[in-house]
Amino acid sequence: MEDTYKGIPVSPGVTIGRVFVLDDVRTRIPRRVVGEHSTERETGRLRDALEASQLELTEICAQAEKELGMEAAKIFAFHQGMLADKHLTEPMFKRIEGERVAAEYAVQEQFRVLADMFASKGDSAFRTKVDDVWDLERRVLKHLIGEHVMGIARLTEAAVVVARDLTPSQAAGLPRDKVLGFVTETGGPTSHTAIFARALGIPAVVGAEGVSDGIEEGDLLVLDGDTGAVIADPSDETIEQYRGYIREEEAYALSLEDLADLPSETKDGVRVKLLGNIEFPEEADVVVRNGGDGIGLYRTEYLWLTSDHEPTEEEQYEAFSDCVHRSNGLSVTLRTYDLGADKYTQERALNPERNPFLGCRSIRYCLQNLGMFKRHLRAILRASAHGPVKIMFPLITNVMELRQARMVLLDVMEDLSEDGLAYDKDVEVGMMVETPAAAIMATSYARETAFFSIGTNDLVQYVLAVDRTNERVASLYSPAHPAVLRMIKDVVRAGRRREVPVSICGEVAGETLYTMLLMGLGLRSLSVTPSRIPYLKRVVRSVDIGSCERLARTACSFDSERQVTAYLRDQARKIIPDVVGGRSAESDWF
Ligand code: PEP
Ligand code: MG
Fold it and tell me: Of 192, 376, 386, 481, which residue is the catalytic one?
């Protein structure tokens, strides 16, 4: 009897395989008291285990850097930093000596203290750290008592990994050739698991409630990273249906390869730029390979999120210039740090906010931390000496922020000139439109910005008052809401009137169902997950602007998002049936 679970699709594709359950239930280690003369032996064991863990982390770090890039490797550098911290390890030794307990018990107790400290803060930022703490504990215990071998070692045949949660170490330590996909019960689209899955290019679903209890090792599983469906013990019919999808998808992806060298333009010759949204510099390669027009959004804060410290100017400069080099002369839009809210910083973590999405996030955080902001801008500007770079400020809600940010930028430019360091003096400076305030006032902002990029991920949550990370209100989160469509239309118009280019970089831009609508609303530049570029190019090349405009006019005449999405599905089936296929058009994620 098949069981279907629904989660959040965070990495596309479909896979069918046997389940490998990564058991994350932590075994409780009993308190074992040792003889008076054995404490020295226990401290020795602890010292060896700590050293072995550090050594192992150094190797994993180097491997992650090679395979996934520097930012991914920094997660493990963070673990190394924790392990090197005497505040964590000294109490372990003291406990052995004072309480005469076995090393593994001392380790378990001290990690628990650290995890409790993070958990007690109650901020989502800390939950990520708690995962890191358990991950590190597991590693040290493995070196102490062998049987705590990380479950993944048992993974010897290709399988779909199912876990309550997947820590960064586990995700990055998965043998690539053996993992067909991930399913986790916790997490959201911005979790580490999602980042790794996308970087690895395998399907993944997170937030699938009940999977870790309901699914057993060895079960056959269908994992649909496009719709978020997870089907255990699928019927023969379901398997056949999904095999059909996989065959179709493979054939379709193959047919798209030829598009890389063709221009992204409509049948009637209108050019629509397709750019990539990236978190790590290495992803620029995919944009280039897929024939993209550049990087429309580089989420620079991921440098910070995968590090235990503020990235130094040099570290930032290295990552940004690496991205510029990889982009082969295509333009790279570096968005300044969008920290805060669900993207934590060390500083903020000590003082959690009650309402972080309405708090000191993004440009507000940067303007309140000028030293850090200046180091960041220096690195960005220095990278601009290596190729075409644009700078974009996020979460602008009033014109003073934009002016202040520009003034800081000018200051930094002066400093660089004084220091004799090269940078592009004519670097373009634009802003994201991701708050209702910015969208409504776009005409006046247009006088002060070189370009707009509409960030629907945030715009939708602020317009509709729906937290984008809360699965309980996920059904209310829709970019098809008439209020959102009207805002997009108005921003595009404001840009046109003032000759300010407008791009869109929210997730909706990568949904083929919405492509004609967005083009019909006047958008000529879409920035999307790099792997989506060929799919969008196919849509662009299959339609003419007249029909997109007609479609947009009708879509904007409805007063509910349901009507809009039903209409988009209907039109997609009629106008671009080979592109969206029955399946994507049925996807109810957006
Ligand atoms: C957005 O808000 O639409 C956006 C692209 O930025 P992020 O998803 O990083 O907030
Ligand atoms: Mg945003």
Answer: 192
What band does 471 get if pLDDT is binned at 50, 70 and 90? low
Ligand nearest to the CA of 337: 1
Q: Give the domains, in start order, of the chain with CATH numbers.
A: 3-24+151-252 (3.50.30.10), 36-145 (1.10.274.10), 256-587 (3.20.20.60)
**Minimal CA–CA distance to 442: which of 387, 402, 389?**
402
Distance of alpha carbon 341 from alpha carbon 321, whole angstroms:
27
Q: Do 434 and 485 form a contact (C-beta atoms < 8 A)?
A: no
Q: What residue spans of 20-147 are helical by DSSP H?
A: 39-68, 70-84, 86-99, 103-120, 124-145
Question: Which ligand 1 atom is the nearest neighbour of the CA of 458?
Answer: 2
Q: Is 192 a known active-site residue?
A: yes
What pTM did the predictor assign?
0.74
pLDDT, tens only, 182-203: 998 876 665 556 666 776 778 9
Poorest-confidence range of 12-16, 40-44, 61-65, 326-330?
A: 61-65
**pLDDT at 192 (0 to 100):** 55
- Taking CB atoms and a 6 Å cutoff, what residues make up the pocket around ligand 1? 297, 299, 338, 434, 455-458, 505-506
